[in-house]
Backbone:
């Protein structure tokens, strides 16, 4: 199992030697912490977070609002420097002094943003948006070959090149723009794609199309995907593995089906119980969250804990404070 | 039948362009009963927010109401003069937006933001306003002593609850909520909406609820209207919209949802 974690089966008790499965991981966070501000106002946005991304797999990141998901994305994008811990790319730490390695990293690790409207330049055609990165990163391509590569990329993301290439962003729908954004990450030669709520601003009717596209790219082009979302049903839909975060800590992780069908951490259970379900109306007592219970789950989940329990070889939970 | 609280009749709204006008809302009619939660669903750009703004009389050019009526307890909202409008906003209709949590003034304590509204609209003094603030914060499960804090000291979900508390402080007859919980996790979302559901039972206000999430909408709403390109194509009870959708478009909306415990739909081709 090419999962994340951190600790071998049965091992526990804050083991400092836990590894992040470097063998086939393309990218790994190794006990990374990120603190904003200074005491007494410091926010621990990420606390000793470890996970690994693998080619051909999607890791979903879900959790409370403000639990540190976007912080993890920005750490992966190297927009934030870790306060502690290491970022490993193909098994090695990324050296800030090595310009070539940095350039390779920037090319390989690409982000798709939540807002498909703001990430494209309104003054340029879609063809331009794809031609530029190809010219920069695919020096081997000349003249006509570049246009062919643009057409090829658009076809890959299921857009008609003849129709779409000459258009400007405002002439496309949100779903189409998000496809262009995906095509652009491919133009650069991305191996890792970080998608922070890539479909939350899209219509339900086009969401599935974008998610399916991500699924196919992952499978056919062996991309590693980090998929951040509040929509746990779609996480199950696109991801093999899932991480649940609360207050800067990963509280549970593992195989997406095992975590969703057999949640162990009280916060994971709470989160899953609150997923909208048209079968249960709010007036139904089963839908009611009890304030006292929710408060207690939050209080317990926020306490930093090092002990980790292996439920199965591919399902782990952070032990709750006694 | 008793008179509905809100009655939208043949509402048509255009965005005026330089060369052509764009019809964003096209001959829409629906009623919201006293104490009812009515949902408006439909794709991005179908005109939901445009209706929400018109009901609150917050629409601005280039939006132009071409025709139709918006009746609140029989009185046409579109006929209000500026003085009546001040009374109408907040005290009769309150509105919560998706980004409302960012609309709190960052340099004012929560207490002061309540005072602004309560003083302006009800002439309350500081002491009265403080008591009302404490009461309202308790309703949304926030410790009253935190009224001395500034917005940045609260999480997004808490800020959104504070905005809702401010909106409810003047006992409005209807609260218009446009994607009030979209950016929040499902636990916080459930807490907020559960609270709204209880409060409307206690105080009897109505809610116009707008969201992209049809599953959530069915859980929360009594009745739902489905919009497509400016038109209301179907309206029915929440159960019927879920269990027996009539319009093809409604059926398609349902089909495009992966469900949490349903079969993995990975094999489905792109729609
Ligand atoms: N640049 C920053 N400076 C200070 N604090 C920050 C910064 N970025 C994030 N934080 C804080 O770190 C915590 C984690 O934020 P983050 O944006 O990672 O959460 P998230 O899980 O993405 O939330 P959401 O689901 O709401 O997007 C929050 O408390 C946030 O206020
Ligand atoms: N200021 C404006 N000028 C011109 N057209 C506008 C303006 N505001 C909105 N529109 C158009 O009116 C239509 C309805 O917009 P509205 O904001 O009501 O949609 P919505 O249903 O709320 O969508 P969403 O789900 O994305 O919030 C859209 O096609 C939009 O492009
Ligand atoms: Mg975020
Ligand atoms: Mg809207």
Residues:
């Amino acid at each position: 199992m090419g999962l994340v974690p951190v600790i071998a089966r049965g091992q526990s008790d804050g083991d400092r030697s836990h590894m992040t499965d470097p063998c086939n991981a393309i990218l790994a966070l190794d006990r990374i912490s990120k603190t904003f501000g200074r005491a007494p106002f410091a926010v621990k946005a990420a606390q000793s977070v470890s996970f690994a991304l693998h080619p051909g797999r999607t890791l979903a990141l879900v959790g409370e609002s403000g639990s540190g998901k976007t912080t993890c994305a920005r750490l992966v994008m190297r927009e934030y420097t870790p306060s502690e811990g290491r970022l490993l790319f193909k098994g090695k730490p990324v050296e800030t002094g090595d310009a070539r390695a940095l350039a390779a990293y920037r090319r390989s690790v690409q982000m798709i943003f939540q807002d498909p409207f703001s990430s494209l330049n309104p003054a340029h055609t879609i063809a331009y948006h794809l031609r530029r990165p190809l010219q920069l990163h695919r020096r081997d391509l000349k003249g006509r070959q570049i246009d062919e590569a643009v057409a090829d990329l658009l076809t890959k993301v299921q857009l008609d090149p003849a129709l779409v290439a000459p258009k400007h962003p405002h002439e496309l729908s949100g779903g189409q723009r998000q496809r262009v954004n995906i095509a652009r990450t491919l133009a650069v030669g991305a191996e890792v794609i970080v998608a922070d709520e890539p479909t939350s601003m899209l219509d339900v009717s086009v969401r599935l199309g974008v998610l399916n596209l991500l699924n196919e790219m992952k499978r056919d082009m062996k991309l590693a995907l980090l998929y951040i979302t509040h929509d746990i049903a779609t996480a199950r839909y696109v991801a093999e593995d899932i991480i649940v975060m609360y207050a800067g800590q990963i509280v549970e992780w593992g195989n997406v089906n095992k975590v969703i069908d057999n949640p162990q951490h009280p916060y994971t259970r709470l989160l899953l119980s609150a997923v909208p379900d048209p079968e249960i109306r709010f007036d139904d007592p089963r839908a009611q969250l009890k304030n006292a219970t929710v408060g207690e789950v939050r209080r317990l989940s926020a306490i930093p804990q090092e002990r980790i329990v292996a439920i199965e070889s591919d399902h782990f939970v952070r032990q709750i404070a006694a | 039948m008793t008179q509905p609280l809100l009655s939208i009749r043949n509402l048509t709204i255009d965005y005026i362009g330089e060369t052509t006008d764009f019809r964003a809302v096209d001959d829409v009619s629906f009623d919201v009963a006293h104490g009812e939660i009515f949902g408006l669903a439909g794709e991005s750009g179908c005109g939901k927010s445009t209706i929400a703004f018109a009901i609150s009389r917050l629409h601005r050019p280039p939006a132009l109401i071409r025709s139709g009526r918006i009746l609140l307890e029989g009185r046409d909202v579109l006929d209000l003069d500026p003085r009546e409008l001040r009374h109408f906003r907040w005290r009769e209709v309150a509105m919560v937006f998706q980004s409302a949590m960012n609309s709190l003034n960052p340099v004012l304590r929560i207490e002061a933001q309540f005072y602004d509204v309560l003083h302006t609209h009800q002439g309350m003094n500081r002491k009265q306003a403080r008591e009302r603030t404490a009461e309202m914060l308790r309703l949304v499960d926030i410790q009253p002593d935190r009224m001395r804090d500034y917005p940045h000291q609260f999480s997004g979900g808490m800020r959104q609850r504070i905005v809702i508390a401010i909106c409810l402080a003047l006992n409005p007859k209807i609260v218009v909520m446009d994607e009030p919980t979209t950016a929040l996790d499902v636990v916080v979302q459930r807490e907020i909406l559960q609270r709204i559901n209880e409060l409307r039972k206690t105080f009897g206000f109505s809610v116009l609820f707008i969201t992209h999430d049809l599953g959530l909408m069915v859980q929360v709403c009594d009745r739902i209207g489905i919009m497509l390109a400016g038109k209301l194509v179907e309206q029915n009870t929440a159960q019927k919209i879920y269990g027996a959708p009539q319009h093809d478009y409604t059926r398609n909306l349902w089909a495009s949802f992966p469900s949490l415990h349903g079969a993995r739909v990975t094999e489905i081709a792109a729609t």
